[in-house]
Amino acid sequence: MSYKASFRVWRGDSAGGGLQDFTVEVNEGEVVLDIIHRLQATQASDLAVRWNCKAGKCGSCSAEINGRPRLLCMTRMSVFDEDEVITVTPMRTFPVIRDLVTDVSYNYTKAREIPAFTPPADLKPGEYRMKQVDVERSQEFRKCIECYLCQNTCHVIRDHDENKENFAGPRYLMRIAELEMHPLDVADRRHAAQDEHGLGYCNITKCCTEVCPEGIHITDNALIPMKERVADRRYDPVVWLGSKIFRR
Ligand code: SF4
Ligand code: F3S
Ligand code: FES
Protein backbone atom coordinates (compact mmCIF):
# COMPACT_ATOMS: atom_id res chain seq x y z
CA MET A 1 0.00 0.00 0.00
CA SER A 2 1.30 3.42 -0.95
CA TYR A 3 0.64 6.83 0.53
CA LYS A 4 1.98 10.36 0.24
CA ALA A 5 4.20 11.54 3.09
CA SER A 6 5.24 15.06 4.05
CA PHE A 7 9.00 15.42 4.31
CA ARG A 8 11.04 18.43 5.43
CA VAL A 9 14.68 18.09 4.45
CA TRP A 10 17.50 20.45 5.37
CA ARG A 11 19.16 21.84 2.26
CA GLY A 12 22.22 24.04 2.29
CA ASP A 13 25.95 24.16 2.86
CA SER A 14 28.53 25.67 5.21
CA ALA A 15 27.26 29.15 4.35
CA GLY A 16 23.74 28.36 5.60
CA GLY A 17 20.47 26.79 4.52
CA GLY A 18 17.01 25.80 5.65
CA LEU A 19 14.25 23.21 5.56
CA GLN A 20 12.59 22.41 2.24
CA ASP A 21 9.16 20.76 2.07
CA PHE A 22 8.36 17.79 -0.15
CA THR A 23 5.39 15.51 -0.68
CA VAL A 24 6.66 12.11 -1.66
CA GLU A 25 5.36 8.61 -2.29
CA VAL A 26 5.99 5.90 0.31
CA ASN A 27 5.55 2.17 -0.35
CA GLU A 28 5.16 -0.68 2.09
CA GLY A 29 8.39 -1.87 3.70
CA GLU A 30 10.44 1.23 2.88
CA VAL A 31 12.97 2.98 5.09
CA VAL A 32 13.75 6.70 5.27
CA LEU A 33 16.77 6.26 2.95
CA ASP A 34 14.41 4.90 0.25
CA ILE A 35 12.40 8.10 0.48
CA ILE A 36 15.52 10.27 0.27
CA HIS A 37 16.54 8.31 -2.84
CA ARG A 38 13.04 8.83 -4.30
CA LEU A 39 13.42 12.57 -3.72
CA GLN A 40 16.74 12.47 -5.58
CA ALA A 41 15.14 10.53 -8.43
CA THR A 42 12.02 12.64 -8.80
CA GLN A 43 12.28 16.09 -7.22
CA ALA A 44 15.75 17.05 -6.01
CA SER A 45 18.46 15.43 -8.13
CA ASP A 46 21.19 17.40 -6.38
CA LEU A 47 20.17 16.44 -2.83
CA ALA A 48 23.38 15.27 -1.10
CA VAL A 49 23.27 12.22 1.17
CA ARG A 50 26.04 9.81 2.19
CA TRP A 51 25.29 6.09 2.17
CA ASN A 52 26.83 2.81 1.10
CA CYS A 53 25.40 -0.45 2.37
CA LYS A 54 21.70 0.17 3.08
CA ALA A 55 22.05 -2.59 5.67
CA GLY A 56 23.08 -0.80 8.86
CA LYS A 57 26.70 -1.89 8.53
CA CYS A 58 28.75 0.86 6.90
CA GLY A 59 27.80 3.66 9.29
CA SER A 60 27.57 6.23 6.48
CA CYS A 61 23.92 7.32 6.48
CA SER A 62 23.78 8.93 9.94
CA ALA A 63 21.45 11.92 10.23
CA GLU A 64 18.72 13.26 12.50
CA ILE A 65 15.09 12.30 11.94
CA ASN A 66 12.60 14.43 13.84
CA GLY A 67 15.56 15.53 15.95
CA ARG A 68 16.67 12.03 16.86
CA PRO A 69 20.07 10.78 15.67
CA ARG A 70 19.49 7.65 13.55
CA LEU A 71 20.66 5.66 10.55
CA LEU A 72 18.52 6.60 7.53
CA CYS A 73 18.70 3.03 6.19
CA MET A 74 17.56 1.39 9.43
CA THR A 75 14.63 3.67 10.18
CA ARG A 76 11.45 2.12 8.86
CA MET A 77 8.74 4.43 7.55
CA SER A 78 6.25 2.29 9.45
CA VAL A 79 7.41 3.79 12.77
CA PHE A 80 5.83 7.12 11.74
CA ASP A 81 2.15 7.99 11.36
CA GLU A 82 1.14 8.48 7.73
CA ASP A 83 0.09 12.10 8.40
CA GLU A 84 3.23 12.92 10.39
CA VAL A 85 5.67 15.48 8.97
CA ILE A 86 9.09 13.82 8.88
CA THR A 87 12.00 16.18 9.28
CA VAL A 88 15.45 15.06 8.18
CA THR A 89 18.47 17.15 9.14
CA PRO A 90 22.24 16.56 9.10
CA MET A 91 24.10 15.56 12.26
CA ARG A 92 24.37 18.71 14.33
CA THR A 93 27.75 18.18 15.96
CA PHE A 94 29.78 18.14 12.75
CA PRO A 95 30.20 20.88 10.12
CA VAL A 96 27.82 20.63 7.16
CA ILE A 97 29.38 20.02 3.77
CA ARG A 98 26.11 19.97 1.85
CA ASP A 99 22.50 19.00 2.66
CA LEU A 100 22.63 15.81 4.79
CA VAL A 101 26.38 15.30 4.43
CA THR A 102 28.64 16.42 7.27
CA ASP A 103 32.39 16.58 7.70
CA VAL A 104 33.15 13.88 10.28
CA SER A 105 36.94 14.29 10.17
CA TYR A 106 36.97 15.24 13.90
CA ASN A 107 36.44 11.53 14.53
CA TYR A 108 39.39 10.48 12.38
CA THR A 109 41.60 12.97 14.19
CA LYS A 110 40.55 11.49 17.54
CA ALA A 111 41.12 7.94 16.26
CA ARG A 112 44.67 8.81 15.23
CA GLU A 113 45.48 10.23 18.66
CA ILE A 114 45.08 6.82 20.33
CA PRO A 115 48.26 4.70 20.31
CA ALA A 116 47.73 1.29 18.70
CA PHE A 117 47.45 -2.02 20.57
CA THR A 118 50.74 -2.52 22.41
CA PRO A 119 51.57 -6.12 23.38
CA PRO A 120 54.63 -6.89 25.56
CA ALA A 121 57.80 -6.45 23.50
CA ASP A 122 59.05 -9.99 24.19
CA LEU A 123 55.78 -11.67 23.18
CA LYS A 124 56.12 -13.29 19.77
CA PRO A 125 53.34 -13.91 17.25
CA GLY A 126 51.80 -17.27 18.13
CA GLU A 127 52.38 -16.74 21.85
CA TYR A 128 49.32 -14.56 22.38
CA ARG A 129 46.89 -16.21 24.81
CA MET A 130 43.60 -14.74 26.05
CA LYS A 131 40.72 -16.02 28.13
CA GLN A 132 37.39 -16.32 26.35
CA VAL A 133 35.85 -13.74 28.70
CA ASP A 134 38.41 -11.17 27.53
CA VAL A 135 37.74 -12.02 23.89
CA GLU A 136 34.02 -11.53 24.40
CA ARG A 137 34.52 -8.19 26.11
CA SER A 138 36.45 -6.86 23.11
CA GLN A 139 33.93 -8.29 20.68
CA GLU A 140 31.13 -6.12 22.01
CA PHE A 141 33.18 -2.97 21.38
CA ARG A 142 34.24 -4.23 17.97
CA LYS A 143 30.66 -4.29 16.75
CA CYS A 144 31.06 -0.51 16.31
CA ILE A 145 30.30 0.57 12.71
CA GLU A 146 31.71 4.07 13.26
CA CYS A 147 28.44 5.78 12.44
CA TYR A 148 29.35 8.54 14.93
CA LEU A 149 25.79 8.85 16.18
CA CYS A 150 27.13 8.58 19.75
CA GLN A 151 29.69 11.30 19.06
CA ASN A 152 26.93 13.45 17.54
CA THR A 153 24.70 12.99 20.58
CA CYS A 154 27.09 13.54 23.47
CA HIS A 155 26.28 16.90 25.05
CA VAL A 156 29.96 17.55 25.83
CA ILE A 157 30.55 18.46 22.18
CA ARG A 158 27.04 18.68 20.65
CA ASP A 159 26.77 22.42 21.18
CA HIS A 160 30.31 22.97 22.39
CA ASP A 161 32.85 23.08 19.59
CA GLU A 162 35.34 24.41 22.10
CA ASN A 163 35.42 21.02 23.87
CA LYS A 164 36.32 19.06 20.75
CA GLU A 165 40.03 19.59 21.10
CA ASN A 166 40.13 18.01 24.56
CA PHE A 167 37.43 15.34 24.28
CA ALA A 168 37.69 12.15 22.24
CA GLY A 169 33.97 11.34 22.54
CA PRO A 170 32.27 8.10 23.60
CA ARG A 171 33.35 6.08 20.57
CA TYR A 172 37.05 6.72 21.17
CA LEU A 173 36.90 6.60 24.96
CA MET A 174 35.38 3.17 24.36
CA ARG A 175 38.36 2.27 22.16
CA ILE A 176 40.72 3.32 24.96
CA ALA A 177 38.70 1.23 27.45
CA GLU A 178 38.88 -1.74 25.11
CA LEU A 179 42.67 -1.50 24.99
CA GLU A 180 42.95 -0.84 28.74
CA MET A 181 40.93 -3.98 29.51
CA HIS A 182 42.85 -6.05 26.96
CA PRO A 183 45.01 -8.50 28.94
CA LEU A 184 47.92 -8.20 26.50
CA ASP A 185 48.04 -4.42 26.18
CA VAL A 186 50.82 -2.83 28.23
CA ALA A 187 50.47 0.84 27.28
CA ASP A 188 49.43 3.41 29.89
CA ARG A 189 45.83 4.06 28.93
CA ARG A 190 44.58 5.46 32.23
CA HIS A 191 46.67 8.62 32.43
CA ALA A 192 46.05 9.27 28.75
CA ALA A 193 42.28 8.75 29.03
CA GLN A 194 42.02 11.33 31.77
CA ASP A 195 44.68 13.85 30.76
CA GLU A 196 44.65 13.72 26.95
CA HIS A 197 41.29 12.30 25.85
CA GLY A 198 38.92 14.04 28.27
CA LEU A 199 37.35 11.12 30.15
CA GLY A 200 36.56 13.53 32.99
CA TYR A 201 34.18 15.51 30.74
CA CYS A 202 31.84 12.50 30.58
CA ASN A 203 29.24 12.66 33.33
CA ILE A 204 27.67 9.34 32.30
CA THR A 205 24.40 10.71 30.93
CA LYS A 206 24.19 7.59 28.72
CA CYS A 207 22.75 9.48 25.73
CA CYS A 208 25.49 7.91 23.59
CA THR A 209 24.34 4.41 24.53
CA GLU A 210 20.70 5.24 23.72
CA VAL A 211 21.43 6.06 20.09
CA CYS A 212 23.95 3.32 19.28
CA PRO A 213 22.46 1.25 16.41
CA GLU A 214 24.64 -1.71 17.40
CA GLY A 215 23.25 -1.72 20.93
CA ILE A 216 26.72 -1.46 22.47
CA HIS A 217 26.60 -0.68 26.19
CA ILE A 218 29.07 2.17 25.74
CA THR A 219 28.53 3.76 29.15
CA ASP A 220 28.07 0.71 31.35
CA ASN A 221 30.67 -1.55 29.76
CA ALA A 222 33.33 0.92 28.63
CA LEU A 223 33.09 4.41 30.13
CA ILE A 224 32.15 3.55 33.72
CA PRO A 225 34.74 0.74 34.03
CA MET A 226 37.33 3.12 32.58
CA LYS A 227 36.41 5.78 35.13
CA GLU A 228 36.68 3.20 37.90
CA ARG A 229 40.15 2.21 36.75
CA VAL A 230 41.26 5.84 36.62
CA ALA A 231 39.84 6.48 40.09
CA ASP A 232 41.31 3.32 41.57
CA ARG A 233 43.49 4.48 44.46
CA ARG A 234 46.03 1.77 43.76
CA TYR A 235 46.70 3.42 40.45
CA ASP A 236 48.57 6.25 42.16
CA PRO A 237 51.78 4.61 43.47
CA VAL A 238 52.08 7.12 46.34
CA VAL A 239 48.47 6.58 47.46
CA TRP A 240 48.91 2.85 47.01
CA LEU A 241 52.06 2.81 49.16
CA GLY A 242 50.33 4.97 51.76
CA SER A 243 47.38 2.62 51.97
CA LYS A 244 49.75 -0.31 52.46
CA ILE A 245 51.71 1.42 55.24
CA PHE A 246 48.72 2.81 57.11
CA ARG A 247 46.78 -0.42 56.99
CA ARG A 248 49.41 -2.08 59.15
FE1 SF4 B 1 27.97 4.24 16.14
FE2 SF4 B 1 27.64 2.76 18.37
FE3 SF4 B 1 30.05 2.91 17.18
FE4 SF4 B 1 29.06 5.03 18.44
S1 SF4 B 1 29.66 3.07 19.38
S2 SF4 B 1 30.07 5.05 16.44
S3 SF4 B 1 26.87 4.86 18.01
S4 SF4 B 1 28.18 2.01 16.34
FE1 F3S C 1 28.62 11.78 26.66
FE2 F3S C 1 27.98 9.23 26.76
FE3 F3S C 1 29.37 10.31 28.68
S1 F3S C 1 26.69 10.88 26.07
S2 F3S C 1 28.60 12.36 28.79
S3 F3S C 1 30.02 10.11 26.62
S4 F3S C 1 27.85 8.73 28.89
FE1 FES D 1 25.26 1.76 5.53
FE2 FES D 1 23.06 3.05 6.39
S1 FES D 1 23.84 2.95 4.36
S2 FES D 1 24.59 2.05 7.57
UniProtKB/TrEMBL annotation:
Residue ranges occupied by any 2Fe-2S ferredoxin-type domain in the UniProt entry: 5-92
Domain of life according to the entry: Bacteria
Necessary cofactors: [3Fe-4S] cluster; [4Fe-4S] cluster; [2Fe-2S] cluster
GO cellular component: plasma membrane
PANTHER family, A to Z: SUCCINATE DEHYDROGENASE [UBIQUINONE] IRON-SULFUR SUBUNIT, MITOCHONDRIAL, SUCCINATE DEHYDROGENASE IRON-SULFUR PROTEIN
Protein name per UniProt: Succinate dehydrogenase / fumarate reductase iron-sulfur subunit
GO process annotations (BP): respiratory electron transport chain; tricarboxylic acid cycle
PROSITE patterns: 2FE2S_FER_1, 2FE2S_FER_2
Pathway: Carbohydrate metabolism; tricarboxylic acid cycle
EC number, as in UniProt: 1.3.5.1, 1.3.5.4
The protein's enzyme class: oxidoreductase
Organism expressing this protein natively: Amycolatopsis endophytica
Database matches in CDD domains: fer2 (cd00207)
GO molecular function terms attached to this record: 2 iron, 2 sulfur cluster binding; 4 iron, 4 sulfur cluster binding; electron transfer activity; metal ion binding; succinate dehydrogenase (quinone) activity
Family statement drawn from the similarity comment of this UniProt entry: Belongs to the succinate dehydrogenase/fumarate reductase iron-sulfur protein family.
InterPro entries per UniProt: 2Fe-2S_ferredoxin-like_sf, 2Fe-2S_ferredoxin-type, 2Fe2S_fd_BS, 4Fe4S_Fe-S-bd, Beta-grasp_dom_sf, Helical_ferredxn, SDH/FRD_Iron-Sulfur, Succ_DH/fum_Rdtase_Fe-S
Keywords assigned by UniProt, alphabetized: 2Fe-2S, 4Fe-4S, Iron, Iron-sulfur, Metal-binding, Oxidoreductase
